[in-house]
Model the fold of this input.
Amino acid sequence: MGANELSMQLWRERELLEFLLFKLEEQRLLLGAGSMRWIHYATREVEQVLEQLRTSGLGRDVEVAAVAADWGVPEATTLSELIAAAPTDAWREVFTEHRAALTTRMSEVAQLRDSSEAYLRAAVRAVEETLAGLAASTGEYTTQGERAREDTARLVDTEM
Done:
């Protein structure tokens, strides 16, 4: 029975990783489009999925320990070690497939995370450059050549 529960737990983690990929892609698209208005929602959703993955990881550890005890290997074993100790080719194949899928999804998550970080760095640079430009003098001088205003705050009339 333990191996079945572990397999189901691994399926759940695969689904959560797929959902994380979706949320990271959504976040990356918002960043790429410059839609900073919604980015905090996307970030919160990514954090929620990451929390679910942490919880799922604890569940996986419990299931691995149970299967390891059934199969006569140390409880603190890895999935790779569990695959090597599998009593049948069927379980070896099932867990090998899970491990390959999880590894692939984690690689995709890392790529999207890196892409999102690059967008965030670019957005921060753009904001810093904009703020630096706002602090620059606008050239408001009196007829005597003296500065007319010391502050940089401006009111713009948008109606003519």
Summary: Helices lie at 2-33, 39-71, 79-85, 89-135.
